[in-house]
Structures are given as structure tokens and as C-alpha cells.
């Protein structure tokens, strides 16, 4: 039994009074349970009843009788009041009293809502009715030519990547190797001082972070070598940080310096989107994208700006043409 159930039992059996308060019940539960446990056993429960009797200054049998007389937990809830306009049917009006049409008498299932007349594999009716797509393309002046089953689609252009649901590949821009640590420091810091975020990126790019020297270690090394009130480090402090990183990794300063020099500068990585067949392969274009159509940006009598929408010929004050 947990503490919440123990307190509810004391409340339902009316053991809580001025001598035994709810706080006393919680303190008794903490005394009788194990130190690291959150529940009590039956033997501990009996011990708790004995402490209840001592606290109330009554016989243990009286407390046990009160608990035994209980038929179980008392569940309380809010009972809804009567609502006259809902519960009293004599107050009903309209279709609730006189009756009226119903929308559930007839069979309105999905089976009766579907058009099951004959159609081809594209949904075009075989009775001769034109499809919506055919009418729309006819108005636009586009002629649809159906492909025969044996006609193969034109092959995609060479050099195009296949579109798929796989994650896009990542690409990174590499820098040329540097000749000195100070050159790398200047390249990363873009100045004479380097902040903690940039130092952590340098260590990540140079693969100085591993299980032995973690990101937390890099931050601690940076905080240990910078000035107390400063937020950035100088080149001399940067060299001291690299020395501490090498000690933490169990390597020499020269070995870590070679890794930093080989990197040369920051690595800028990003996500490179894969090719999308229906966007990149123009052989897949249909409609006005493939056959052309009306334009609103000039070239086919379109409107270029709002001045061509206004009639600027002469008129009187009422807008009547001369």
C-alpha cells in the first residue's frame, strides 16, 4: 500500500480527528515503511494501526475494528442535477414532440454514395462522357495523347540523380592545410580573439573530441585558460588550451598540432538536396509547362503593370467620355 492509499483508509474509517491529524498519518507512514521503499507490507500496516491507537490513546482493538468495519474505499463523485428541459419530456417542442423527417432512415452508407458505373483504369466513363480533365485541357487548348502499353517512356537525361525517399546527402567544404597554428587561430576566430563556441568547433572539425576528451572537457579547458572575466581567449591562451587537450587525450602537443594544421580552417557542412524527378527532369512536364499557354507577364498580350488596366482617355468630372 502506498502513502496515498494509507491516508485514504484513515480518512474513510474516520480515524482522523484532532488527536490524529492527516499530518500524523503521513508521518506514521514514513516511520513504518522501509527507508528507500514507497509502499508498506501488511505487517507494517498493522504496526501503523498500533501507532494510530497510541496517538489517539485508545485500544488497538478499537482501531482494528473500525478498519474491519469498512467495506472498502469510499468513492465520491459529483451527481448531476436534474435539467428540466432535458429530463421532462412534457416540455419538448418541435420535432422532438411532434415528430418530423429523419436523416438516418434511409441507407446513406458509403456503398450508396459511390458511382459504380463502368469506367476505364483512369476513371473515365466508358459510356462516352468526357472526364473533367479532358474538358479542362480542351478549354486550355491542350491535346492529351494516351500512351500505349508497349510504348516506353523516354529515358531520363544522363547525369540526373534518381529521386527517392532517402535522406539528402551532406556535403562539406574543406580548407587547405595551414602553415602555422596562428594562421588557423586567425581563420577560425576571424580576429585576434576566439570564443568558446568557436574553440569547440575547431576541436570538433579536427576530430580532437572522443570518449576520453568530451565536449564537456573542451568547455572546461577553455574556461580554465581564459581570463576570469573574459569571454574570449588570445593566441597564447589558445596554445595553452591545445596543450591541455593533448594531455587529456594522452597525446603530444605536436601530434594534435598536426591535426589542426591539416584541417587548415573551419569546415562548413550542409545538406545537399537530392534530385526530384518531376521537377528536375523536364521530360516529365505536362500541361502548360510542356505545351505552353496564356501568360500574364508579357509576350502574348499580357499586362505588365497597372497602368495598362486604366482608361486614361478624356472624360468629364462624372467620368463620362467626351
UniProtKB/TrEMBL annotation:
UniProt GO cellular component terms: microtubule
Annotated spans, Disordered:
150-174
GO annotation (BP), single: microtubule bundle formation
Determine the domain of life of the protein's source: Eukaryota
- Record Pfam families: p25-alpha
GO MF terms, alphabetically ordered: tubulin binding
Q: Where is the composition biased (Low complexity)?
A: 164-174
Family from the record: Belongs to the TPPP family.
**How is this protein named in the record?**
P25-alpha family protein
Q: Which organism is it from?
A: Favella ehrenbergii
Give the organism's phylogenetic lineage: Eukaryota, Sar, Alveolata, Ciliophora, Intramacronucleata
